[in-house]
Amino acid sequence: MQDVAVPNNRAIWHRLQPALLAILLGIIGALVNSLSVPFLTNVELIFGNAAIIIGAMLFRPPLALLVALIAVTPMYFYWGHPFGYLTFGLEALVISYLRSRGRYVLFAELYYWLLIGMPLTALLIWLTSNQPDVYWLFVSLKQGFNAAIYATIGCIIAFILDRRMDVSWRQQPRIKRKLSQQLVYAIIIVTTLALISASLYISRGLIVSSHQATQSSLENRAQKLADSIHFFVNNQKSAIVIAANWMSHGQNIDRQTVLEQTHLSYAGFLTMLVADKSGEIVNASPASLMSSMTESSVKDRDYFQQAINNQSLFLSPVFLGRGFGRSVIIAISAPYYQNNDFTTPAGIVEGSLDLSFLQIFTETQSGIIPIKTIITDQHNKIIYADPTLNIEPLAEFQFDAISNAAEQQRFIMSSMPNEVFAYAKKVTPAGWQVYTIIDFDLIIKAMEQEYLAIFVSLLFTLIMSAIVAFLFGQRITKPLNFIIQQINKFDNKAIDTFKPLRESAAVEINHLYQELKRDKNMVEVHQKNLEQMVNERTRALNQANEKLQELALNDGLTKVHNRRYLDNNFAYIQKTAQRNLALMSVIIMDLDHFKRLNDNYGHLAGDEVLVKVASLVSEEFSRETDTIVRFGGEEFLVIAPYITAAALAKKLENLRVKIAETEFVDKDNQQIFRTSSSFGAIIADAEFSEDLLKWVKVADECLYQAKNSGRNKVVITDRIARVAP
C-alpha cells in the first residue's frame, strides 16, 4: 500500500501545482493593479494585467480565466462595477485559446481588443455612463492601448524568464519558430511598448496642459470680474456718502437737486430717495416717481433702520424691489444731518443699485470655449447667472463639487444634474462669490478629437509595421546580422574596411549595405551640423523668451509697464531711493468721465486717448528713474524718485494742461473732442513705507479730493519728514 501511496501523492501535487501557481500569479497581478497609475480624471492605467498575459502563455483557458478574475478584483472595488470581470475574463480566454493555436500573444491581444474588447467597453460605457458623448470612445481607445502596454510588458517578462518558465506543469506547448520570426516579433514588442508609452505620455501632457490653461483662464476672468464689481459698488457707495455730506453741510440746500445731480452722475442706481427721520419719503429721483409711488414710507426697511440706528453707511443684502419695480437690487444708504447737529440723523439718503449692471461685466468673452458666469451674494443667493443657464435670481446656489478631479475643478448644479462644469471661484471684499464656469463636455470633446487622431495614427503604424515585418523578416535576417557584425567591428575599430555581402543577398539589402557604409562616414559631419542647428535654435528660442518676458511686463495697448512689472520692481525702486536718502513721489492719474467718452465716441476712440495720454505722461516723466504703469482701465500710476515738491507740482500741472489741450478726432463722426485728467500724488521720504499699498492709498485719497473738487485738478500731499531747527 505504501508503494502505491507515494505515486498517488505526487500525481495529486502535479495536478494541483498549475492551479496553485495560477492563483499566485493572479494575486501578484491584483497587488500591482491595486497601485494603478492615474492618467486622467477617472481614467487609470493598469499594469497588473500583465499577469493575465503570462497566464495565457502558461495555462489553458480555465486557469488563464482564474488568473484574470483574481487580478482584476481590485478594479471592481475601485470602479464600483463588475464589467472588468467580463472584458478581462474574455481576454484571458481568447488569448489562451489563440496561444494554444500557435498565435503570437501580442497579435492575439490586438485581435481581441480590436474585435471584442474595445467595442464591448464602448458599449458598456455608452449604456451605463452619463459622460460626454465622445467619452466612451476615448476610454475604449485608452483601454485598447493600455492593453497593448501591459501585453508587451508581459511578453518581455516572459522572454526574460524564458528558461524558468519551461517547467513540467506548463500547460501551453512550446512552439518552435524561425529565427526571423522571433527577431521580428521581438522588434515589434519593443516598438509597440515605446510608441504607445510615448504617445500616452505626450497626449496626457497635452490634455493636462490644456486643462491647466483653461483653469488659469477661468481664474483670471473670475478675478477680473470680482475686482470690477468691487470697484463699481465702492464707487456707488461713495456717491451716497457724498450726497449725504452735501445735505449735512450745506445751508438751505435743495435736497431734490442734490439727489437728481447724484443720480445723473451715477447711472448705476435704479432709483434714489431721501427719507426723513420718521421714514417718510420726501424726495425721489427720478422726480416723477413721487407721484407714482404706492408706498410713501420706508421705516420698515433695513436700509432705513440700519443707517438711522448705526449712523453709518449701510449696504443691504440682495432683494427684489417693491416700490419702484421688481428688479434685483441692493440698497445703499447713509444718514444726513441738519443744523450742525451731528448726533441725531435728520433722515437718510438711499440709492437702489440695479444689479443688471453685472451683465455688462460678464459680456466680454475670450477664447474658443465660452465662459459663463454665476454671481452669488454673501448669503449664497444667486444675484446673477448667465441667461443660458436658466437660473432664477435669488435662488440658493446649490452644487456638488467633484473632489477627485485631478486636472480640473468641477461641480454639478442641482438645477442641471446632467451637466458637469469646470469652474473657478473668487470672493469680493463684500462677500459676493464670483463663479466662472464652462461646460466640461467641451473640454473633453476637444481633447478626445485630438487624442483619437493620435491613436488612429499609431494603430495604423503598428499594423503596417507588423505586416511589413512578417513579409520581409525571413529575407533580411541573415544579411542584416552580417551587416550588424560589420558595423560593430567598424565602430570598435576592429576593421577599417567592410567585407562584401554574399552574392545570394538581395539587391536591396546590398544597396542598403552600401548606403550604411557611406552614412557611417557622414554621421560625424551630420552630427556637427545638427549641433550647430540646435545651438541656433536655442539662441532663437532664448530671444523669443526674452520678447515674451518683455510683453508679460508691459501693457499691450499703451506700451507702458503693467501691474506685474510694478509688483516685481517697486521694492527695488523704493529701497534704492531710501539708501540714497532721497524723496520719492507716487502719482495716480485718472481720465475724467472716461466711461462717458467711450459711450459717446466708442472704445476705439477711448483706446486712442489712452495711448496718447500714456505718450504725454512718458514725455513729462522721461527720466530713467521714472516708472510709468497702467494701473487699470483709465488709471495710470507714476513712481518718480529723486524729485522735489516744486518740480513735482510743475510737472503735474504741465501734464494736466497738455492733456486738457490735446484734441482728439472721432473718425466716425469727424468730431473733435477733448478730455481731462485728475491727479492725486504723495511726495515723501523714500523711507515713508516699503508697502506700495500705503503710498497708493494716500495718492488715491488725493485723487478723490481732485475728483470731488470738480475734476481736472492736481492734489498733492506732502509727507516729507521735517527736521526740527
Mean pLDDT: 79
Shape assignment: elongated
In what range is the share of β-strand residues?
A: 15-25%
Residues in helix, %: 55-70%
Main sheet, how many strands, which sense, barrel? 6 strands, antiparallel
Q: With helices defined by DSSP (H or I, 4 residues minimum), what is the helix count?
A: 19
CATH topology value of one domain = Arp2/3 complex 21 kDa subunit ARPC3
Radius of gyration from CA coordinates: 39 Å
Q: Cα distance, first to last residue?
A: 125 Å
Q: In terms of per-residue confidence, which ranges show pLDDT below 50 for 5 or more consecutive residues?
A: 1-6
Q: What is the CATH domain class of one domain?
A: Mainly Alpha
Total DSSP E strands: 21
Key descriptive features of the protein:
725 residues; alpha+beta; Arp2/3 complex 21 kDa subunit ARPC3; Alpha-Beta Plaits; 6-stranded antiparallel beta sheet; 56% helix
Structural notes for this entry:
The structure is a single chain. The chain is an alpha+beta fold and 725 residues long. Among the domains are: 15-176, Arp2/3 complex 21 kDa subunit ARPC3, CATH 1.10.1760; 563-719, Alpha-Beta Plaits, CATH 3.30.70.270. The chain contains 19 helices and 21 strands. The protein has helices at 2-33, 50-58, 61-71, 73-79, 83-100, 105-128, 135-160, 179-249, 255-265, 289-292, 302-310, 358-362, 440-491, 507-553, 563-579, 594-601, 603-620, 645-661, 692-708, and strands at residues 37-40, 43-45, 269-276, 281-285, 314-315, 319-320, 328-336, 347-354, 372-376, 382-385, 399-402, 410-413, 421-427, 433-439, 583-591, 627-632, 635-641, 664-666, 671-673, 677-685, 714-719. The strands form five sheets. Strands 3, 4, 5, 6, 7 and 8 form a six-stranded antiparallel β-sheet that branches. It has a six-stranded antiparallel β-sheet with strand order 10-9-14-13-12-11. A five-stranded mixed β-sheet has the order 16-17-15-20-21, sandwiched between helices. Strand 1 (37-40) and strand 2 form a beta hairpin. Helix 5 packs antiparallel against helix 6 (105-128) and helix 7 packs parallel to helix 13 (440-491). The radius of gyration is 39 Å and the shape is elongated. The termini are far apart.
